[in-house]
């Protein structure tokens, strides 16, 4: 496999190879000198047309830990503001010798288009409401580390599913890894044809929580909402927020996840977000090792092909 555009493109073996490689690379991240020479002489371009903290910084850290040269491009302050197209921007960066382009864009499908224009590998770092495959991989990695398995794990993904690329990528990946996902949201925040996704769907968070091993809370993406999807933030929080009382409904070993950034006090209370059973900070650290594994395997041609 040359590109990573969708979690659905990964076979179970591909996904496990990435998680197992990340596990090996995590040991490097624990050393005082964290750098490996693996991608010396290769160039990774981070092409970000949408804001990001975690994904952009962790891809940069991942590429640098593998000794790649990194070019960071942000649409703000570039010739995109003068009207330059995605294609011309991509070709300009390719002329600088990109072996891999990591792209975040507000348009669903932008990474797929990019892959038809550039010679290097394309990694989807989040496209519109479509997919965020490396987030799903780091989430699966974090779950496996905490819970010791993915097969048979009951995962509730809660909140603004309609606007969430994280939810779609997690459902696709976790289904192929044998976990059982339940999406929980008000009917207005579920996508059309969600019944065709490989997961269960519920409107009732209180009924799902006691049966869950993992609860992944999603940010309410107010910036993508062009209509009133719920009466008020207070009402949303009352029905779908994870506060202390709801947290108490979970079994003692269950964990709480959130991809970040969080709306503290809306979908998750500060007390729950900062509890020892929250993996939110771990997810960020794991993002670096998982993205190292993705770059290493893609540029080595080992996903969906022979391990070199
Ligand atoms: N989880 C995530 O994608 O965060 P950023 O938007 O900060 O990259």
Describe the 3D structure.
The protein is an alpha/beta fold. It folds into two domains: 7-132 and 284-300, Aspartate/ornithine carbamoyltransferase (Rossmann fold, 3-Layer(aba) Sandwich); 133-280, 3-Layer(aba) Sandwich (Rossmann fold). Helix content is 37%, strand content 15%. It has eleven helices and nine strands. It has helices spanning 12-29, 54-65, 86-95, 110-115, 133-147, 165-176, 205-208, 233-240, 244-247, 270-273, 280-300; strands at 43-48, 69-74, 100-105, 121-127, 154-158, 180-184, 200-202, 214-217, 255-257. It has a five-stranded parallel β-sheet with strand order 7-6-5-8-9, with helices on one face. The chain has a four-stranded parallel β-sheet with strand order 2-1-3-4. Strand 1 (43-48), helix 2 and strand 2 (69-74) form a beta-alpha-beta unit. The longest helix is centred in the last third of the chain and has 21 residues, at 280-300. It starts with 11 loop residues before the first helix and ends in an 8-residue tail after the last helix. The mean pLDDT is 93. Bound molecules: phosphoric acid mono(formamide)ester. Residues 52-55, 126, 135, 259-261 line the site of phosphoric acid mono(formamide)ester. Heterododecamer (2C3:3R2) of six catalytic PyrB chains organized as two trimers (C3), and six regulatory PyrI chains organized as three dimers (R2). Keywords: Pyrimidine biosynthesis, Transferase.
């Amino acid at each position: 496999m040359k590109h990573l555009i969708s979690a659905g493109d990964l076979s179970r073996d591909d996904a496990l190879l990435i998680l197992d490689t990340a596990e090996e690379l995590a040991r490097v991240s624990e050393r005082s000198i964290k750098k490996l020479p693996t991608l010396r002489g290769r160039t990774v371009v981070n092409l970000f047309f949408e804001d990001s903290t975690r994904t952009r910084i962790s891809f940069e850290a991942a590429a640098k830990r593998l000794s790649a040269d990194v070019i960071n491009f942000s649409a703000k302050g570039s010739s995109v503001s003068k009207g330059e197209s995605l294609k011309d921007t991509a070709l300009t960066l390719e002329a600088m010798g990109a072996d891999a382009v990591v792209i975040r864009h507000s348009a669903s499908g932008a990474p797929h288009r990019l892959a038809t224009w550039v010679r290097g590998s394309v990694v989807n770092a989040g496209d519109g409401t479509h997919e965020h495959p490396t987030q799903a991989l780091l989430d699966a990695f974090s779950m496996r580390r905490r819970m010791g398995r993915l097969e048979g794990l009951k995962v509730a993904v809660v909140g603004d599913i309609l606007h969430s690329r994280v939810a779609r990528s997690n459902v696709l990946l976790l289904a192929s890894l044998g976990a059982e996902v339940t999406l929980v949201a008000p009917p207005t925040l579920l996508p059309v044809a969600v019944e065709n996704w490989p997961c269960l769907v519920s409107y009732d968070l209180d009924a799902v929580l006691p049966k869950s091993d993992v609860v992944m809370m999603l940010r309410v993406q107010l910036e993508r909402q062009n209509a009133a999807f719920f009466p008020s933030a207070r009402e949303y929080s009352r029905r779908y927020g994870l506060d202390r009382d709801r947290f108490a409904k979970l079994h003692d070993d269950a964990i709480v996840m959130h991809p970040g950034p969080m709306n503290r006090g809306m979908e998750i209370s500060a007390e729950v977000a900062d509890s020892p059973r929250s993996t939110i900070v771990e997810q960020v650290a794991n993002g670096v090792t998982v993205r190292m594994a993705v770059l290493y395997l893609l540029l080595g041609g080992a996903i969906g092909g022979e391990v070199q």
